From TrEMBL:
Keywords: Oxidoreductase. Gene3D superfamilies: 1.20.1050.10, Glutaredoxin. It comes from Pigmentiphaga litoralis. It holds the Pfam family GST_C. Residues 88-218 form the GST C-terminal domain. This is GST-like protein. PROSITE patterns: GST_CTER, GST_NTER. Transmembrane segments: none annotated.
Length: 235
């Protein structure tokens, strides 16, 4: 059984997609990041970085509970555990390269673009411009790579495609003010539509829909999501 620590954001979405594709049994454990539940000691014991997603595999190596945190680490762990969605052995160098291109580039730059366009709107025009332009650059790199390719790596659907799907799904928010942001990246749009049409993607989108997560953007939310922006509590 996989205990899946979840909040409805792009990185957990990737893991939800894998779990649904692989048909692994799992239990959703909600972590409401707007309430600061990611900072609770019991969750920090699973992910010391206080971020979702994270998993605990109750049937890990030697039959023991095994924690894994960071979406790319989780995708790799589950892919190796099941022997699925890794492509061919010859594909592994490319798979790792593109998986980490998404996790260290396209994903975090997209997240920062969202932050400075919404949460910190008008506070730093330089930062807003930098993250938006760098996100555009990362999208263009992936779009160029996908020219003439059905999938990101080799000839098969892999965890690299799942990872991209999680973030590209948020392109309308990332590219604020653009009605159809993927029109500028037709190869990414084609890949996204291909993955999004899979039955597992529909099921992944339904994960957590029965859970009420906080949606109010108040001071508690801001302190929970951006604690480094606030001085530590006195005492």
């Amino acid at each position: 059984m996989i205990r899946f620590y979840f909040h409805p954001t792009p990185n957990p979405a990737k893991v939800a997609l894998f779990l649904e594709e692989a048909g692994l049994p799992y239990e959703v454990v909600p972590v409401d990041t707007s309430k600061g539940q990611q900072h609770a000691p019991e969750f920090r014991a699973i992910n010391p970085n206080g971020k979702v997603p994270a998993i605990v595999d109750t049937e890990g190596p030697a039959g023991s509970d095994t924690r894994v945190f960071d979406s790319s680490a989780i995708l790799l762990y589950l892919a190796e555990k099941t022997g699925r969605f890794l492509g061919s052995p010859a594909d592994k160098p490319e798979l790792l390269s593109w998986l980490f291109f998404i996790s260290s580039g396209l994903g975090p730059f997209s997240g920062q673009a969202v932050h400075f366009q919404y949460a910190a709107e008008n506070e730093s025009p330089y930062a807003t411009n930098r993250y938006r332009r760098e996100t555009e650059r990362h999208y263009q790199v992936l779009n160029d790579h996908l020219e003439g390719r059905e999938y990101i790596v080799g000839n098969e659907y892999t965890i690299a495609d799942m990872s991209a799907w999680g973030w590209v799904d948020r392109a309308p928010r990332v590219f604020k003010g653009v009605d159809d942001p993927l029109s500028a990246y037709p190869n990414i749009k084609r890949l996204f539509d291909t993955v999004n049409a899979r039955e597992a993607a529909t099921r992944a989108r339904a994960v957590g829909k029965d859970i009420e997560f906080k949606k109010v953007n108040d001071e508690e939310t801001r302190r929970s999501l951006f604690p480094s922006n606030f001085p530590p509590a006195a005492g």
